[in-house]
Amino acid sequence: MKQLLTYFLLLFTLPAFAQLKVSADHHYLQTNDGKPFFWLGDTAWELFHRLNRQDADLYLEDRANKGFTIIQAVVLAELDGLNTPNAYGEKPLINNDPTQPNEEYFKHVDYIVKKAEKLGLIVGMLPSWGDKWNKAWGVGPEIFTPENARIFGEYLGKRYKNNSIVWIMGGDRDIVDQEDRDIITAMVEGLKKGDEGKHLFTFHPAGGKSSSNFFKDAQWIDFHMSQTGHSKESKNYLFNIKNRTLTPVRPHLDGEPRYEDHPNQFNPVKFGWMDDFDARQTAYWSMLSGAFGHTYGNHNIWQFYTEDRAPVSWARTNWKVALNQLGAIQVGFMRRVFEKRNWQRLVPDQSILPKDNIENEEYQMASISQDGDFLFAYLPYGNKVKINTEKLTGKQLKGWLFNPHDGYTISLGNFENTGSKEIEPPSMGRGSDWLVIIDDAAKNYPNPQIINLLSKIH
C-alpha cells in the first residue's frame, strides 16, 4: 500500500507550501511557478471536528492517492461544531468566544493541515460554517460580530500564514443583510492582515447560488464559487456560463455539486439516490463549460458518517467504505485526462455539436483549445454525434474515445479534416458516458489513456 501511495504522489503531488495565484487571463489558477493548477476538491466539511489523527491520515492519504488537490474543511464546523468536542475532547473556542481560541483544538487542526501539505494537498479552509453568523437553519449559535470576526480572522491568518491554504468564506449561507456582509468583510480583513495577503479568497454560498450573487465587485474575492444543488436535475454548466460573462472577470468553479450517494432532491423514497454517473456528469459539464476545476462530494464523507452517529439526510454508507465509491476514483481520471492536454487553453464552444442538443440529462458539452490544436466533447449518454472540426487547424486529425469509467481509450485513428467527424461510441444509455478527444495529428499528442487503477485501489 505504501508503494502504491508513493506512486500516486509522484503522479499528483504539488510542491510543499504551494501558494496559488490567478492567471493573467483570469480564467484559472496557477502555482507560483506559473504552472496551471487543476482544482480537484473534496468536501470534507467535518474533517477537523470529527476525525482523530489516525483517521485523518487515512482519509488524506486516500484523497492524495486518487488525485485530489484540494480538501475543503471547516474550522467551526456545521454539526454542533462549537459545543460538541472533537475526537480529543476539545472545543474550538473558550466560552464560544471567537476572541478566545482553544489552543488544544487548533493543535489538531495544525496536524491535519501539515499532514495535507506533506501529501501535496491544499486545504480550502472555511473559518466557520454559516450558522455561526446567520442561523437561518442548523445548530448555531450565532457568535460573530464584525469586531470579533476581525479578531478571529487575524488569529487564523497568522496561524496559517505559511501553510498551503485557500480561504473559503461563507459556509452554505447567503448574505441577507448588511450585518452579514459586515461580518464577512471584517473576517476577510482580519485574515488578510494575519496572513499578509499570501492566500486566495472565495465564498461558499447556499444552494443554487454563486459568490458572484453577493460579491461580484468585491476587491477581496479572487475567484467565484457556486453551490449548484443536490439534484439530478441540476445544470451546473449554467453557473459557469453566467460567471464567464461577468465583469470583472474571475475564475469560477462548482464548489458543492451533486453528491455521490446522496438522496436525489433530499427525497430518497420518491426520487432515489445519486450515483457515480451523477458525479461524473456534473464534473465533465463543469470543465467543458469553463470551470478551472471541480469539487467532488460524497454524502457520507462530508459528515464522516459511521453507524454510531445519527445520519444527516439519510446517509447510509460508512465513510471508510464510501472512500472507494466509484465517483471519487473517476474524477481522478477526469483530472488526469484533462492534464494530458493544455486544458487551461480550452474555451467552451457548443457550435462543435449539433443544434438539436436538448438540455436534458443527455446534454452534450464541448470545448476547443484557443490554439485550434484539440477539442473535447462529452457525451453523457453515448449517443452517436457528428462533431464539427472546422475550427481545428490541422489538415490531418487524430481521435480518441476516452472512457470516464476506467480511464481506457479507444483509438479513432487518423483522418482528414473535412469539417466534421461522425462518432459512434460502443455503448449508449444512462451511465454510458464518453469523452471525445480530437487532436491536430501533427502535434503528436499522446494517447490520453489513464492507467487502470481500480484493481489496485480496491
Automatic annotation (TrEMBL):
Gene3D superfamilies attached to this UniProt entry: Glycosidases
Signal peptide range in chain numbering: 1-18
Q: Which residue range or ranges hold the Apiosidase-like catalytic domain?
A: 24-343
**By its UniProt entry, which InterPro entries does this protein fall under?**
Apiosidase-like_cat_dom, Collagen-bd_put, GH
- For the keyword Signal, the answer is yes
What keywords is this UniProt entry annotated with?
Signal
Q: Does the keyword Signal apply?
A: yes
Annotated SUPFAM superfamilies: (Trans)glycosidases
Q: What is this protein called?
A: Collagenase-like protein with putative collagen-binding domain
Q: Which residues form the Putative collagen-binding domain?
A: 347-439
Q: Supply the source organism for this entry.
A: Albibacterium bauzanense
